[in-house]
């Protein structure tokens, strides 16, 4: 299939950047990133700078890949990270627009690569259980109801790609933070620090990312289909923590 | 050089306890005086960095991804073993130890494996306390599954994302230490060399992957937890960035490299579908619990699977291994698939694939039951291939997956360079010639949480008051200059071929001659071919751009340059090991029935290679292995 790609090119963080157009020959069995590999091979052979894009596992689990494809984070397929998207989902002759995550909290480093350190900081603010190595009791000491454990796992499935932020018109990181807050708050092990955790994580989140006004775009963009109900859960937790802590 | 594994004396059950007692301690007030570098933020590195931060050491942790949470451990699917015996089905430390030594085909070190089995329980406790959402029973207690043909159910899992959840647990502990100021995290920073002075590791040299800055870091001890080297084959199930640079550079600086030819080829991967393919995708081997593997009986078969009648299908694993059937160990299943395809019986693209058929299981258990068990895997398969496995059988083919070989380490996980440690997949220690399913995650966390914090403490206690070497000293400056020289050389080559095209070609040589089965003639030829291609690499590679920028081609180019050297060593090792064991199958050494034939008389040892400098053949040292606790037997799955 013949495709026209309009790709955002930007030399570095200081460059203003702009779109360049490329024609590629792709096969429907290729993954989207393999199609970009092919483009890069061609560019390199022609002595042109290849397009920088982030990727690693190429299985939809590491959260590295992060492309805005025709205005949608990770492209047209629901529940699919960019690396899992295949060209058979496109038509011969299509023009595809490829951009980096667009968000004030994610500055572009080069072409399609952005800086997502802000997400790490939210976790550092409190997205953990404070337990030192070696001090844990027997794993079966505290039973956890299965449905709770499963729900915690639904939240924990977040791959930290930042699609939620990228798709949000406000650049809010609510879904990302809520997934971690909920995962830990649903488990008995997470109770002792529950209030402190949600307060600190929300504070960090608000300082670096936009505010949530319930567009719910994040849920649609999430490659792991994490539910916005977790945001409601986080908000409830936050309010009760504020009440308790003053 | 005499290899001393430093295995503590005494009965195997008491070795680790005794050793822990005999090791020196650093008192709490003095811990903050020590700097420790951990390269890698996967299960092994992340755990080591977090645990040592908790103890009070100053830790610097490096990874090449943009976040510590993306280390390749994240991709592990199936599960993690531990000898909890929660299922009351006869498991014990001894049984896990025994199974691991036997599964490794008697090429691992008993004392290390025993310790691994001992600490396995602590790992599960630790992870649950961190909030890892393992699968549970309705009563609220932890569930287990049997994995990779094990006869007991000792595998803990978190859906099909066990590695992800374990790594996030580790990453969260690491984040807590970052917040506490105990660990400094350096993402997007690639280690390009290690600095050794007077036989001791003094630090590392890295490249900032955004600015290109090359700089030195000094420390009292250095840990390499940089993962495995399956990407030498170009196509593997590893993440694209996985590389051998850290361990290879350490090898070039004097660390011995053990058993490089012990690589594991995983039987259930989605076959290659085109020449542009960039990686191979693993599907959990739990699929073999219900799927039946077959090929058509006649070569060149062109009918669709459904049109091939039952009596024209060869369920070759069930036929050849009636006792284990489709659940034979990984190496056997992989080799059998290759054998079938070599005979022209394969299916799909290039006839490199075999069927994994769920039709029987669906009619026996119902579509819903199969979907409950394997729904996400079926979906993943369909996404990649465009075929629906409920309707047509899956096609699978083996792919490079894991490397048992790695830096040689002693019982303390120290390499042959003082103060340089290797942990996780980067070392060679626990899996012998073949790793059992769900044991890599266990080993990574054991090394990081429960072994290194003790053994490094012992080393540091012996160097109290010495302090790190300044980075402006000659040893650091020399290494920095060499690193810069290598970068310049790659950038100024101005050849005609891309890094990927040369890497692909290298991968094909390795896969063909040092993959699932090997023979002397092929290996000798491969060594020459690799040398020729390496020559071409350094004269004809094309790396655009400059160093002072985010330059992904340059990153790749450095890694591939190291693969060229490692590939040659793999072939040399495979050539020298004139026996078949575990994942290493030498065609010349097999039983009359064509099965692997070990040679315990001559090869019950670890081969540990010493670099002799550019252009000189490496020298092999032997660490003899003995098995007082697990009597040597020939594996049989008939
Ligand atoms: C698809 C797949 C499924 C698997 N499933 C299972 C399973 O179910 N059970 C099981 O037990 N095992 C499984 N394994 C194996 C297991 O996942 C790995 O062996 C294990 O996770 C390796 O952990 P590690 O900490 O040693 O290395 P990794 O997790 O690979 O981490 C390496 C770290 O080193 C860093 N690094 C590497 N090179 C450099 C450098 N030069 N400079 C700076 N940083 C560097 C990386 O950034 C990363 O942080 C699976 C493997 C694969 C590929
Ligand atoms: S590359 Fe890992 S999620 Fe896409």
Tell me what you see in this structure.
- The complex is a heterodimer of chains A (246) and B (638).
- Chain A has 246 residues and is of the alpha+beta class.
- In chain A, 35% of the residues lie in helices and 13% in strands.
- Chain A contains 8 helices and 7 strands; from the N terminus they run ββαβββββααααααα.
- Chain A has helices spanning 32-45, 117-124, 146-156, 163-167, 174-185, 194-208, 217-221, 229-245; strands spanning 2-9, 18-25, 67-69, 72-73, 95-100, 108-110, 113-114.
- In chain A, the strands form 2 sheets. A 5-stranded mixed β-sheet of chain A has the order 2-1-5-3-4.
- In chain A, helix 2 (117-124) packs antiparallel against helix 6 (194-208) and helix 3 (146-156) packs antiparallel against helix 5 (174-185).
- The mean pLDDT of chain A is 97.
- Chain B has 3 domains: 37-264 and 403-461, FAD/NAD(P)-binding domain; 265-401, Alpha-Beta Complex (Flavocytochrome C3, Chain A, domain 1), CATH 3.90.700; 474-614, Fumarate reductase/succinate dehydrogenase flavoprotein-like, C-terminal domain (Methane Monooxygenase Hydroxylase, Chain G, domain 1, Up-down Bundle).
- By secondary structure, chain B is an alpha+beta fold.
- In chain B, helix 3 (43-55) packs parallel to helix 12 (440-461), helix 14 (499-514) packs antiparallel against helix 15 (520-540) and helix 15 packs antiparallel against helix 16.
- In chain B, 37% of the residues lie in helices and 14% in strands.
- Chains A and B meet through helix 1, helix 2 and helix 3 of A and helix 3, helix 5, helix 6, helix 11 and helix 12 of B.
- FE2/S2 (inorganic) cluster binds at residues 55-58, 60-65, 81-83, 159 of chain A.
- The site of FE2/S2 (inorganic) cluster has 14 residues of chain A, from loops.
């Amino acid at each position: 299939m013949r495709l026209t790609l309009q790709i955002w090119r930007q030399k570095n963080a200081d460059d203003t950047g702009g779109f360049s157009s490329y024609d590629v020959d792709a096969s429907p069995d290729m993954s989207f990133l393999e199609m970009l590999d092919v483009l890069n091979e061609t560019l390199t052979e022609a002595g042109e700078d290849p397009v920088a894009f982030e990727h690693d596992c190429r299985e939809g689990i590491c959260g590295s890949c992060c492309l805005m494809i025709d205005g949608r984070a990770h492209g047209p397929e629901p529940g699919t990270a960019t690396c899992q998207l295949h060209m058979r989902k496109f038509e011969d002759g299509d023009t595809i627009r490829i951009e980096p995550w667009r968000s004030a909290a994610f500055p572009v480093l080069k072409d399609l690569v952005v800086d997502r350190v802000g997400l790490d900081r939210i976790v550092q603010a409190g997205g953990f259980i404070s337990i030192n190595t070696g001090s844990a009791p027997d794993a079966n000491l505290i039973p956890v109801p299965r449905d709770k454990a499963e729900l915690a796992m639904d939240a924990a499935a977040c791959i930290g790609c930042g699609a939620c932020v990228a798709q949000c018109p406000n650049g809010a990181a609510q879904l990302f933070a809520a997934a971690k807050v909920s995962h830990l708050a649903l488990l008995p092990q997470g109770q002792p620090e529950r209030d402190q955790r949600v307060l600190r994580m929300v504070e960090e989140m608000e300082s670096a990312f936009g505010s949530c006004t319930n567009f719910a775009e994040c849920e649609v963009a999430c490659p792991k289909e994490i539910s916005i109900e977790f945001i409601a859960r986080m908000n409830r937790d936050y309010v009760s923590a504020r009440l308790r802590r003053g | 050089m005499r290899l001393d594994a430093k295995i503590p004396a005494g009965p195997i059950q008491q070795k680790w306890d005794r050793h822990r007692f005999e090791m020196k301690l650093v008192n709490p007030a003095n811990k903050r005086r020590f700097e420790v570098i951990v390269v890698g933020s996967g299960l092994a590195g992340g755990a080591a960095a977090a645990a040592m931060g908790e103890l009070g050491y100053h830790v610097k942790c490096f990874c090449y991804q943009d976040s510590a949470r993306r280390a390749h451990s994240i991709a592990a699917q199936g599960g993690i073993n531990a000898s909890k015996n929660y299922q009351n089905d006869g498991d014990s430390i001894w049984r896990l130890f025994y199974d691991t030594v036997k599964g490794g085909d008697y090429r691992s070190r008993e004392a290390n494996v025993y310790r691994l089995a001992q600490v396995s329980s602590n790992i599960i406790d630790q992870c649950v306390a961190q909030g890892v959402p393992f699968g549970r029973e309705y009563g609220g207690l932890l569930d287990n599954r049997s994995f990779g043909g094990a006869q007991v159910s000792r595998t803990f899992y978190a859906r099909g994302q066990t590695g992800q959840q374990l790594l996030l647990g580790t990453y969260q502990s690491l984040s807590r230490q970052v917040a506490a100021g105990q660990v400094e995290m350096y993402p997007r920073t690639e280690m390009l060399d290690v600095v050794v002075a007077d036989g001791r590791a003094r630090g590392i040299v890295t490249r900032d992957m955004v600015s290109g800055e090359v700089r030195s870091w000094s420390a009292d001890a250095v840990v390499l937890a940089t993962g495995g080297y399956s990407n030498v084959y170009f196509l593997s199930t590893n993440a694209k960035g996985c590389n051998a640079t850290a361990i290879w550079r350490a090898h070039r600086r004097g660390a011995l490299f053990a058993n490089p030819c012990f690589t594991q080829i995983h039987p259930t991967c989605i076959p290659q579908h085109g020449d542009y393919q960039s990686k191979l995708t693993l599907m959990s081997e739990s699929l073999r619990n219900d799927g039946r593997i077959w090929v058509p009986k006649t070569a060149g078969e062109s009918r669709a699977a459904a049109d091939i009648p039952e009596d024209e299908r060869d369920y070759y694993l069930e036929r050849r291994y009636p006792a284990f059937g489709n659940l034979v160990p990984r190496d056997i299943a992989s080799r059998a698939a290759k054998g079938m395809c070599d005979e022209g019986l394969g299916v799909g693209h290039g006839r490199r694939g075999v069927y994994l058929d769920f039709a029987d299981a669906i009619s026996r258990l119902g579509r819903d039951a199969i979907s409950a068990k394997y729904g996400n895997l079926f979906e993943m398969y369909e996404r990649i291939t465009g075929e629906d496995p409920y309707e047509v059988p899956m096609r699978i083919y083996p792919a490079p997956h894991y490397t048992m070989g790695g830096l040689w380490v002693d019982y303390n996980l120290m390499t042959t360079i003082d103060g340089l440690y290797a942990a996780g997949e980067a070392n060679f220690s626990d899996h012998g010639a073949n790793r059992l399913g769900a044991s890599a995650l266990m080993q990574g966390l054991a090394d990081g949480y429960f072994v290194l914090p003790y053994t490094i403490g012992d080393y540091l206690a012996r160097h109290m008051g010495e302090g790190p070497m300044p980075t402006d000293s000659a040893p650091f400056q020399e290494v920095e200059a060499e690193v810069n020289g290598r970068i310049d050389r790659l950038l100024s080559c101005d050849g005609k071929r891309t890094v990927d095209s040369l890497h692909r070609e290298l991968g094909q040589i390795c896969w063909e001659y040092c993959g699932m089965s090997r023979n002397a003639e092929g290996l000798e030829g491969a060594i020459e071919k690799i040398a020729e291609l390496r020559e071409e690499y350094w004269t004809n590679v094309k790396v655009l751009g400059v160093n002072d920028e985010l330059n992904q081609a340059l990153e790749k180019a450095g890694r591939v340059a190291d693969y060229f050297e490692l590939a040659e060593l793999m072939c040399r090792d495979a050539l020298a090991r004139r026996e078949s064991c575990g994942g290493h199958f030498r065609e010349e050494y097999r039983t009359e029935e064509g099965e692997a034939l070990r040679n315990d008389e001559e090869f019950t040892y670890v081969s540990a290679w010493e670099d002799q400098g550019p252009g000189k053949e490496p020298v092999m040292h032997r660490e003899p292995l003995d098995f007082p606790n697990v009597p040597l037997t020939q594996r049989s799955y008939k």
